[in-house]
Amino acid sequence: MAKLTFYGGVGTVTGANFLLATDNCKILVDCGLVQGSQQAENLNRSEFAYDPAEVDYLIVTHAHLDHVGRIPKLVKDGFKGQIISTPETKELAELILEDTVRILVSDAQREGILPLYEVKDIAPALALWTTLSYHTKKELKDGVSIYLKDAGHILGSAMVEVSRGDPNKNGQVNKIVFTGDLGNSPSILLKDTEDITDANYILMESVYGDRNHEPKEERTKKLTEVIEDTVKYKRTLIIPAFSLERTQMILYEMNELFENGEIKTRVPVFLDSPLAIKITGVYEKYTEDFNDKARADIKSGDDIFNFPGLKFIVQGGESKMIEKTPNPKIIMAGSGMSTGGRVISHEKYYLDNPDAEILFVGYQAAGTLGRQLQDGAKKVTIYGEEKKVRAKIDSIAGYSSHKDSDHLVEFVGKATESEKLKQVFCVMGEPKSSMFLVQKLRDDLGVDAVYPEFKEEIEIEL
Ligand SMILES: [Zn+2]
């Protein structure tokens, strides 16, 4: 038997943190930052509800901040076990944590408080971190083993299968799968999410548990139209984009549009994000993770994240050069919700310009500048300065990296085929999304799906 406790990512998308304990082995899966509110900030700063020193392993599903953001605190607070992830995730997490700590420290300085952790807290975490490639079994303590499958969500994202022979039932192996976030397969870039075929339990994400995405064909068509209009009306197009995965998706899309002659005019494209540039470098190292189409393009000699006109802006202070470049031009910068990063400076400069357009390619959370603009605000305040919004504001849905409701149900449907599946825990979603998915899994598949509570302990056969 084993005990599963839900220490984060319950009733909310962010802050994933699950503890699986057998008699002699304690495994954490993910240790993410809670994001999006002042309450989140307090949760991040609060003590872990378990003793980090007693945890043997931390397994990391992928490098998004809501899955890795509290790792330096965990280590600072006494964890000295092993951290395990794919090599891709380790490399990306290092970049994400370095970028995050910079923001945490400067925010804390502004507020006159101590940061959640500091630069010096990252190296000790990396020193405990070992890597495990997909499809390789690793034995842990107490008869427990793990195996990573491709989740198809972002580069290096893994589902963690945790298996253990049941000492009471000779030879019988039980398995729980932690999905992490599940990719919106087929992805432009990545391989499809692998199937789960013989799990007894699944602990799964449910971000889009209650809704479906727009058809994918629409997004490329829309992106093409927006770029064509940028050229035709000589605009400045600003695309706020997350540095991890979204930027690489858009670069690959643009690469196709510009190189296949879909868009005939050459437009200067500035990728103004040192983090996104570094992350793109990691993507270029792991092309074996890409789908057949992307690998075939690379094999034919195409540098899929680069095309004529694309300029990488590493140094700060080059915005003057970007501003002086005549229209039409495209600027991509983070953050994706205009909550920080270089995109804000560009928005500040261009928002009152009717020859500019802001194109959102991702979800904009309530309270963010991105959301205000998307909701049609006529004026906004940026760094204490009021700006009129004269630029055109547009959005493309469909670039999500998460499975939608129907595909989450289909994913579990495949896992029921072996008839071993006992229970599904729907987490990492807003309550209404998770609860909707629970009901749908019960109704459509007859699966015992549950919506656990924060800090609830559930006994499982492992
Ligand atoms: Zn994620």
Q: How would you describe this protein?
A:
It is a single chain. The chain is α/β, with parallel strands linked by helices and 462 residues long. The chain folds into 2 domains: 2-211 and 401-460, Metallo-beta-lactamase, Chain A (4-Layer Sandwich), CATH 3.60.15; 216-395, Rossmann fold (3-Layer(aba) Sandwich). Helix content is 32%, strand content 21%. The strands form 4 sheets. The protein has a 7-stranded mixed sheet with strand order 6-5-4-3-2-1-22. Strand 20, helix 14 (431-445) and strand 21 form a beta-alpha-beta unit. Zinc ion is lined by residues 62, 64, 153, 181.
Which key terms come to mind for this protein?
single chain, 462 residues, Metallo-beta-lactamase, Chain A, Rossmann fold, seven-stranded mixed beta sheet, 14 helices, binds zinc ion
Poorly predicted parts: none
**Helix/strand/pairing category:** alpha/beta
As for the CATH topology of the largest domain, it is Metallo-beta-lactamase, Chain A
CATH class of the largest domain: Alpha Beta
Largest sheet: 7 strands, mixed
In CATH terms, what is the architecture of the largest domain? 4-Layer Sandwich
Could you state the CATH homologous superfamily of the largest domain? Ribonuclease Z/Hydroxyacylglutathione hydrolase-like
Largest sheet, spatial ordering of strands: 6-5-4-3-2-1-22
Structure in a nutshell:
With 462 residues, the protein is an alpha/beta fold.
Helices and strands in order, then pairings?
Elements: E1 2-8, E2 17-21, E3 26-29, H1 38-45, E4 57-59, H2 65-68, H3 71-76, E5 82-85, H4 87-111, H5 122-127, E6 129-131, E7 138-139, E8 144-150, E9 158-165, E10 173-178, E11 201-205, H6 216-232, E12 236-240, H7 246-259, E13 269-271, H8 274-285, H9 292-299, E14 310-312, H10 319-324, E15 329-333, H11 343-350, E16 356-360, H12 369-374, E17 379-382, E18 385-388, E19 392-395, H13 405-415, E20 423-427, H14 431-445, E21 449-450, E22 457-460
Parallel strand pairs: 3-4, 4-5, 5-6, 10-11, 11-20, 12-15, 12-16, 13-14, 13-15, 16-19, 20-21
Antiparallel strand pairs: 1-2, 1-22, 2-3, 7-8, 8-9, 9-10, 17-18
The protein binds zinc ion.
